[in-house]
Amino acid sequence: MAQPELELRFQRRFLAARQLRSFPWAELERNLRASPGSSLLADILHQTILHPLCVKYPPSTKYRRCFLAELIKKHESTAAEPLDELYDTLADILNEEESTHCYKNYLLPTGESVTLSESVAIISGGTTGLVTWDAALHLAEWAIENSAVFSNRTVLELGSGIGFTGIAICKTCSPKTYIFSDYHHCVLKQLTENLRLNGFVLEPGTTQHIQTESQGQEAEATNHQTPKLVVAELDWGSVTEKQLLDLQPDVIVAADVVYDPEITSALVGVLQKLSTLSADRKPPEVYIAFTIRNPDTYHLFQVELDKVGIGWQIIPAHSNSIFPYDMQPNVTILQLFV
Ligand SMILES: C[S@@+](CC[C@H](N)C(=O)[O-])C[C@H]1O[C@@H](n2cnc3c(N)ncnc32)[C@H](O)[C@@H]1O
Question: Which of 263, 337, 275, 338 is nearest to 300 (CA)?
Answer without folding.
Answer: 263
